[in-house]
């Protein structure tokens, strides 16, 4: 595996090796993290978005139609295993091979580690991962590829100062964790405002005309910090995976009692190590989202994704929220999270 500073730069390198550049097109899932398309846009390519199924798998018929009507030659398809839940990509891989299109498997939500085999990342011509999403390190990206599609390694390593700074930041992250969970006595004192209906005030959709502010072209050829790679290699990944699975199941047990809230993946297959907990708010989305935010429950959603005509992505953009299941959440914090979220969700009928 080739190291990069971040997963987004590993993805940039994979797309570049696929022949992506000005005058070409990349097909990406309509439901996506904004950083997924930064690499293609930085290379000057057009990005078109294929429809996804309710479980976030690729709609192969829609993908084929999109490619057939693309204004520019399609060089690559990005397929993602969102939230760590694997998607069946055999048919997509076969179609890409028949069309001479490179398949880039986005495993940025997958724990890629030798002692935790997930079976993911083996279908595409290229695969990328983001270890910093799981380990308490500030950077790190991985890229692997089939022999017939070589990728030059990142040439620039970290300076001694960068390594020291990264070690310090890693120590700080390990001390405070990454969940952002308030202490038990820090309950919300502010009442949420009245719900405003569909879109929240000031809400807008990204039109994807260029890379986001999080993409730094200077890091495209950087290999990241050696210290971060060492720490990831020497972490007890099996224990980390077990803890994430435990936290995920606790969220599932609680969410079953919440009205109008549905887990995207209620079952947790044996080899899945969840990155986040995706929950779908079936009604009164703005009000439920605000209730969770004002209860100080750390959560996110991809409301800045690019515009598409995919009905699933349009529904999920605001209504699919992501809750934490990070291994750093201790039992006391998890109890607080479940109680705060339950109060917020059961207070809305």
Helices and strands in order:
Blueprint (H helix, E strand, L loop, with lengths): L1 E3 L2 H11 L7 E5 L8 H5 L3 E5 L9 H9 L5 E7 L9 H9 L3 E6 L18 E4 L11 E5 L14 H17 L49 H8 L3 H19 L5 E3 L12 E6 L3 H10 L16 H9 E5 L6 H16 L3
Parallel strand pairs: 2-3, 2-4, 4-5, 5-6
Antiparallel strand pairs: 1-7, 6-7, 8-9, 9-10
What's the name of the CATH homologous superfamily of the largest domain? Type I PLP-dependent aspartate aminotransferase-like (Major domain)
Q: Tell me the series of helices and strands, N- to C-terminal.
A: EHEHEHEHEEEHHHEEHHEH
Give, in spatial order, the strands making up the sheet with the most strands. 1-7-6-5-4-2-3
The gross shape turns out to be globular
CATH architecture of the largest domain: 3-Layer(aba) Sandwich
What is the radius of gyration computed over CA atoms, rounded to a whole number of angstroms?
Answer: 20 Å
- For the secondary structure, the number of strands is 10
CATH class of the largest domain: Alpha Beta
Poorly predicted runs = 183-206
Sheet having the most strands: 7 strands, mixed
Number of separate structural domains: 2
Percent strand: 5-15%
How helix-rich are the residues, as a percent range?
A: 25-40%
Count of helix runs: 10
Detailed description of the structure:
- Helix 2 links the parallel strand 2 and strand 3 (46-50).
- The radius of gyration is 20 Å and the shape is globular.
- The strands form two sheets. The protein has a seven-stranded mixed beta sheet, with helices on both faces.
- It has two domains: 2-145, Aspartate Aminotransferase, domain 2 (3-Layer(aba) Sandwich), CATH 3.40.640; 236-346, Aspartate Aminotransferase, domain 1 (Alpha-Beta Complex).
- It contains ten helices and ten strands.
- The chain starts with a strand and ends with a helix.
- The longest helix is centred in the C-terminal third of the chain and has 19 residues, at 237-255.
- It is α/β, with parallel strands linked by helices.
- The model is unreliable at 183-206 (pLDDT under 50).
- Belongs to the DegT/DnrJ/EryC1 family.
- Keywords: Aminotransferase, Pyridoxal phosphate, Transferase.
- This is DegT/DnrJ/EryC1/StrS family aminotransferase.
């Amino acid at each position: 595996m080739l190291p990069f500073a971040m997963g987004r730069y590993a993805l940039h390198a994979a797309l570049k090796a696929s022949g992506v550049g000005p005058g070409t097109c990349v097909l990406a899932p309509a439901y996506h993290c904004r950083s997924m398309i930064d690499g293609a846009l930085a290379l000057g390519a057009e990005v078109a978005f294929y429809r996804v199924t309710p479980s976030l798998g690729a709609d192969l018929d829609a993908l084929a139609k999109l490619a057939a009507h693309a204004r520019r030659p399609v060089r690559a398809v990005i397929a993602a295993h969102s939230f760590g839940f694997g998607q069946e990509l055999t048919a997509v891989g076969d179609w890409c091979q028949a069309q001479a299109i490179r398949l880039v498997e986005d495993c940025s939500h997958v724990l890629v580690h030798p002692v935790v085999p997930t079976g993911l990342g083996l279908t595409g011509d290229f695969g990328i991962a983001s270890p910093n999403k799981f380990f308490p390190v500030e950077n790190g990206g991985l890229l692997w590829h089939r022999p017939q599609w070589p990728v030059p390694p990142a040439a620039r390593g970290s300076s001694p100062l960068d390594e020291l700074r990264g070690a310090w930041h890693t120590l700080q992250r390990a001390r405070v964790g990454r969940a952002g969970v308030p202490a038990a006595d820090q309950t919300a004192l502010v009442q949420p405002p009245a719900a405003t209906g569909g879109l929240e005030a000031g809400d807008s959709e990204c039109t994807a005309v260029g890379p986001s502010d999080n993409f730094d072209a200077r890091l495209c050829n950087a290999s990241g910090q050696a210290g971060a790679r060492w720490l990831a290699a020497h972490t007890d990944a099996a224990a980390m995976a077990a803890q994430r699975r435990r936290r995920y199941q606790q969220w599932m047990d609680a969410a079953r009692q919440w009205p109008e809230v549905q887990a995207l993946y209620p079952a947790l297959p044996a080899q899945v190590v969840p990155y986040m907990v995706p929950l779908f708010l079936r009604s009164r989305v703005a009000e439920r989202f605000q209730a969770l935010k004002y209860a100080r429950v750390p959560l996110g959603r991809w409301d800045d994704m690019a515009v598409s005509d995919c009905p699933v992505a349009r529904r999920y953009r605001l209504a699919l929220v992501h809750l934490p299941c990070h291994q750093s959440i201790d039992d006391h914090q998890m109890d607080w999270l479940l109680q705060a979220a339950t109060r917020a969700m059961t207070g809305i009928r």
